[in-house]
């Protein structure tokens, strides 16, 4: 089957650090290619994949700007229509849905983000697309989509060798943001009398939060910020952690880092929000409050 996958212009595939959507696109492209499908990935020019790669931008465009996304999507759809070689097109951005009338193949859209009214209005105008939610909780909060299903994210387990030991610290990895509960993770570690290691960064819109809530807590004993970590450093950090702290303050649509931690043999500690009741096996792979 000839399958097109449209990633984002913001982060390379696979991501060198943060990038949930781009990691998903990498795993999907590699998995389908391994199964013998003819895959074309529309991504950034610095992406490294086994399949055919097409790019408008030579490198990732950061920070995210809507004009870069629209240019990337318009180019990807125009190329897909011009080449007319695909059997199906898989998109990963709400804006991409608006371009679907310009191609003559079935389109699948994976929803990666929490519901917002602007995206829902786009979905409502395109009911013939196959929509894939990444958790039951995400789908329940979205408008009714007539052609929808739920498929949890997956990763290649061989890239996450499990560990039966730990070095006695807690971990918190990903985007430093209020909805991710980064400051709460630091408070939990202090209350438990355990060291904590952070791996990630704050996005531009979260910079004020970082300065006000996270930076002062990092000055306390036992807390350290390793900065953004690549795949190998992330896996090493997870494998040696006593637990991964995910004190979510929002309805997280999925949370790939939780799956990555569980594959490494590291339990997830979090709240019963978002996808976590679906993906955490209570008392086996983690504990939810």
From TrEMBL:
Glycosyltransferase subfamily 4-like N-terminal domain span: 18-115
Superkingdom to which the source organism belongs: Bacteria
Boundaries of every Glycosyl transferase family domain copy: 169-288
Pfam family, one: Glycos_transf_1
Gene Ontology MF annotations: glycosyltransferase activity
Name by which UniProt lists this protein: Glycogen synthase
Origin species: Sorangium cellulosum
Lineage summary: Bacteria, Pseudomonadati, Myxococcota, Polyangia, Polyangiales
